[in-house]
């Protein structure tokens, strides 16, 4: 490394020794004098973030504040009532988890709870999964499992796998409205599995939901063990440090206080008005430079630590749902976004690093480096060399190989994977996303595209109901093509969807539909085989 490069490295480094965190932007291809002319724009973004933290309406569609920063600093909340609610919920989470761990809260037909089943989707699953995988281990109070989709086979893999252990399983159902189909279906499938073992959901369940929601009412009616709040000022993708993430973590026996402390420390660092000393501000500006303010480069997340393997999945939702927007704040069509993908190192070196070095130049890499290797004594795999030496060598070598090919990367270094550092990483990316959104003039806190997908799915289910009604009305023995059935229900403009519906139903015994193949998929005919 030349003296010039060494100076460049030091100029583009933010190091927080107390937190055990470092951000290195020296390999991002940033212009001389960075951040230079971008400082005023970032100053405006930081000012907007300050207004947000003071309670400004950030989601005009729903007239909502955005207050996930208050979750680790309730004294900064927009009102005394909100601050008190945060503190009270923290205390209730800790108290309930303690009673479960001591056995004073126990299942009806077992001595104590030994397993935890979290039912949620999106932010209600990705955050808790990241925390559980990153911080969990042999000392867990409860062993966690997750239902985070509406895949029947996925339900079976988890629920059949639990088997008789369902009698010792505490079920945490997480849904703000209680009507999210994936979560509702997971809850109903869990209830059915419990009934098959002579058990009921209520005495083994906890709800995390908004007060007065359908799930909240069900929890009261069915005698759930406890209910914890989801607030309208916390979005799903930023909810991991609310009861959404803190309750599963506490039940697993993880360091909840450490998560909150680390996030609060990073929040303080990322509020700095001095852009050059603010890691989130610098990171957002680096993203902006890399993608020319239009997301023209993908972000490849490669943590060199198995415990952080789910970080990329977590960041996919946080970043892409927040920044992927059709229109800016003035209503202009801009099609903004930042694509995120990644797995873990050194696995990725045997997967797509070949393309990263020699293929399309349409990305930047986020390396995550962890200095602490393991809790057990080191094992030499070669004289004087450990597995950890290989792992770090692969990271530093890949980073250099990309730099030699002119491919940009940044490196986040943490001392170790513990609750404090994980909380700090969560807070860093939350703040970075918000600041970047200000730079590109989009609203990071609403998601109309997600709602559109939900409405489209509901329309498919309604079409399925109409097609099944038409088949059943004709009775067994009558077969019709997808074109004919689409015409009967007034859906000729959706005949392809009708075909897809019928093919899937016919492939699953007991759904009432039988298929007679034709030479081509659309030549098949379908009939009614009786009661479902």
Chart the SSEs and their pairings.
Blueprint: H1 3-11, E1 13-16, E2 21-24, H2 39-53, E3 57-59, E4 64-65, H3 80-102, E5 115-119, H4 123-135, E6 143-147, H5 152-162, E7 169-174, H6 181-196, E8 205-209, H7 214-221, E9 226-229, H8 243-252, H9 256-270, H10 279-290, E10 298-303, H11 311-323, E11 325-327, E12 333-336, E13 340-341, H12 353-358, E14 363-370, E15 380-382, E16 385-386, H13 387-404, E17 409-414, H14 419-440, H15 448-474, E18 479-481, H16 482-488, H17 495-506, E19 513-516, E20 525-528
Parallel strand pairs: 5-6, 5-7, 7-8, 8-9, 10-13, 10-14, 14-17
Antiparallel strand pairs: 1-2, 2-17, 3-4, 11-12, 15-16, 18-20, 19-20
Helix pairs in contact: 2-14, 3-8, 4-8, 4-11, 9-14, 10-14, 11-14, 15-17, 16-17
CATH architecture descriptor name of the largest domain? 3-Layer(aba) Sandwich
Distance between the termini: 71 Å
Largest sheet: 6 strands, mixed
The CATH class of the largest domain: Alpha Beta
Report the C-alpha radius of gyration, rounded.
26 Å
Approximate strand percentage: 15-25%
CATH topology of the largest domain: Rossmann fold
β-strand number: 20
| Overall 3D form | globular
Q: Runs with pLDDT <50, length 5+? A: none
Query: Structural class of the secondary structure composition?
Result: alpha/beta
For the residues shown, what is the average pLDDT? 94
Mind telling me the CATH superfamily name of the largest domain? Glucose-6-phosphate isomerase like protein, domain 1
Helix percentage range: 40-55%
Note the total helix count.
17
Strand order of the largest sheet: 1-2-17-14-10-13
């Amino acid at each position: 490394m030349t003296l010039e490069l060494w100076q460049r490295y030091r100029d583009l480094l933010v190091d927080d020794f107390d937190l055990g965190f470092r951000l290195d932007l020296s390999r991002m291809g940033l212009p001389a004098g960075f951040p230079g002319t971008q400082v005023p724009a970032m100053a405006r973004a930081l000012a907007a973030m300050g207004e947000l933290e003071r309670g400004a309406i950030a989601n005009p569609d729903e007239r909502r504040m955005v207050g996930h920063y208050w979750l680790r600093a309730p004294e900064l909340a927009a009102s005394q009532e909100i601050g008190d609610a945060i503190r009270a919920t923290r205390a209730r989470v800790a108290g309930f988890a303690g009673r479960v761990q001591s056995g004073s809260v126990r299942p009806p037909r077992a001595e104590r709870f030994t397993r935890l089943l979290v039912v949620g989707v999106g932010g209600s699953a990705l955050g808790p999964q990241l925390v559980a995988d990153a911080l969990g281990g042999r000392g867990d109070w409860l062993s966690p499992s997750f239902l985070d989709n509406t895949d029947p086979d996925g339900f079976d893999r988890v629920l059949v796998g639990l088997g008789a252990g369902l009698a010792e399983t505490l079920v945490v159902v997480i849904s703000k409205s209680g009507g999210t189909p994936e979560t509702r279906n997971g809850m109903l499938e869990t209830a059915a599995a419990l009934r098959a073992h002579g058990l009921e959901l209520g005495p083994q369940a906890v709800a995390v939901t908004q007060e007065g929601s359908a799930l909240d009412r069900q929890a009261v009616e069915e005698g759930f063990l406890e209910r914890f709040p989801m607030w309208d000022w916390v979005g799903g993708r930023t909810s991991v440090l609310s009861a959404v993430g803190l309750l599963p973590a506490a039940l697993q026996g993880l360091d909840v206080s450490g998560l909150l402390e680390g996030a609060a420390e990073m929040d303080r660092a990322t509020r700095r008005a001095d852009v050059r000393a603010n890691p989130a501000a610098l990171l957002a500006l680096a993203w902006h430079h890399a993608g020319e303010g239009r997301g023209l480069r993908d972000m490849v997340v490669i943590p060199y630590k198995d415990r952080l393997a789910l970080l990329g999945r977590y960041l996919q939702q946080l970043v892409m749902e927040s920044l992927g927007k059709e229109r800016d704040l003035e209503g202009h069509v801009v099609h903004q976004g930042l694509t995120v993908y990644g797995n873990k190192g050194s696995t990725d070196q045997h997967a797509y690093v070949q393309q990263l070095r020699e293929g399309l130049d349409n990305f930047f890499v986020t390396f995550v480096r962890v200095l602490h290797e393991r809790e057990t004594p080191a094992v030499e795999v070669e004289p004087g060399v450990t597995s950890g030496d290989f792992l770090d060598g692969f990271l530093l070598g890949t980073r250099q190989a990309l730099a030699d090919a002119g491919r940009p990367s940044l490196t986040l270094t943490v001392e170790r994977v513990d609750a404090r550092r994980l909380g700090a990483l969560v807070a860093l990316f939350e703040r970075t996303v918000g600041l970047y959104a200000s730079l590109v003039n989009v609203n990071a806190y609403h998601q109309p595209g997600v709602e559109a997908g939900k409405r489209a799915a509901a329309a498919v289910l309604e079409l399925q109901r109409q097609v099944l009604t038409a088949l059943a009305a004709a009775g067994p023995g009558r077969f019709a093509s997808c074109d004919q059935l689409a015409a009967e229900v007034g859906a000729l403009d959706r005949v392809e969807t009708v075909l897809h519906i019928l093919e899937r139903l016919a492939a699953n015994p007991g759904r009432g539909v039988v298929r007679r193949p034709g030479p081509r998929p659309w030549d098949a005919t379908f009939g009614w085989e009786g009661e479902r």
